[in-house]
Amino acid sequence: MLALPLAARAQAWRPPGQTRIIVPAAAGGTTDIMARMLAQFLQPRWNMPVVVENRTGAGGTIGTLEIVRSRPDGTTLLLGNIGPQAIAYSLFRNMPYRADQILPIAGTIAGPNVLVVNSNVPVRTVAELAAMLRARPGQVPYASTGVGQSTHLSPVLMLQLLNAEAIHVPHRGSAPAQIDLLGGNVTFMIDNLTGIMGHIQSGRVRALAVTSKERNAMLPDVPAMRETMPELANYEVNTWFGLFGPVGLPAEAVTSLNAEVEALVSVPETQRRFAELGGFAMHGTPEQFAAFVRSEITKWAEVIRKEGLQVDAG
């Protein structure tokens, strides 16, 4: 099988009928965009309908339950992300599924968050922000898009590594969090790069660092967090998205679906779209993606445990 060209491997299997891709998030976000790109790619190759269904709620766990309860024949797939497929296992007390009930198939796109401050805040580097936090422990407010979201846990990890404290101000989504930041009601936030890029370009907020291991092409002059201070040398956070299926999916289906995703992310148009989103393609086998997901579950479990953070999924 491995000796076959990628296209041949991808063509080797077909689902038995119309396929739905569950999105455990609202329409319009990166999870939804990725699912629709994949559906549009697969439909003509399979010559059968591939539909996207948004099933939101409970931090992505409601949509994920659809895949846990589905038949393992490839007609129900999940376009998951870092929230319900990694963070949720430690964050929620009453998790309705386990990690071993969901089968990782292929990573699709990953990308950084970015640390920003209100442009009126007199800090221009991460070190200067750290000095402010240490001078005023537990007094500096920061915004997030909600408790347990990547935009919350990214600064939590930073604060843990800096041995610093700040005041968390959660919001219901990125837009209200950004309004609070622009209004000067909070000092900083770590948001999705694409979501806040417009405000960075306008000069209304100042970017101090990206959370990925390397600098991002959209902000080449902004350092990676791990470049900025010795305490942050091991800091790395990427939001990520990938394809999952129900446990029991035949091996040939997993191999073929992984190859289909690899074919999609290798198309120049996809690479251009990923660049617009500030992200990069995730390449690799199903086994490599599964190992990555396990490492993310472990990583965020430790961050959440140290923070003493748990909420109800409902």
TrEMBL record:
Belongs to the UPF0065 (bug) family. CDD domains: PBP2_Bug_TTT (cd07012). InterPro entries: BUG, Bug_dom1. It holds the Pfam family TctC. This is Tripartite tricarboxylate transporter substrate binding protein. It comes from Neoroseomonas oryzicola. Gene3D superfamilies: Bordetella uptake gene, domain 1 (3.40.190.150), Periplasmic binding protein-like II (3.40.190.10).
